[in-house]
Structure formats: C-alpha cells, structure tokens
C-alpha cells in the first residue's frame, strides 16, 4: 500500500471516529452501533 493511500485511509478512519463520537448514545443506538464499537466501525469504513 502506498503512503498516499495509507494517509487517506487514516483520515477516513479519524473522520468516522470523530463523527460517531459526536453522536448521542440514542443516535448511535438508532444506527445499531454501541459506543464501544466506534473504533471497529471506523476501521471497517477505512478498509483497515
């Protein structure tokens, strides 16, 4: 994997974590996500 792709994946991961972290527990629950699952969901979104 090249450096640019790695950096873009990392940015996507951080953006996803930040967006999910700003949500309330109720909003996360509506999406079927537990607060403890945020990092896992973000890794999947960033193709890690």
Automatic annotation (TrEMBL):
Domain named YjiS-like is located at 3-38
InterPro entries named among the record's database cross-references: YjiS-like
User: Which one Pfam family would you cite for this protein?
Assistant: YjiS-like
State the name under which the record lists this protein: DUF1127 domain-containing protein
């Amino acid at each position: 994997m090249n450096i640019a792709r790695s950096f873009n994946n990392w940015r996507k991961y951080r953006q996803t974590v930040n967006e999910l972290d700003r949500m309330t527990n109720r909003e996360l629950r509506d999406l079927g996500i537990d607060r403890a699952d945020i990092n896992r969901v973000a890794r999947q979104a960033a193709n890690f």
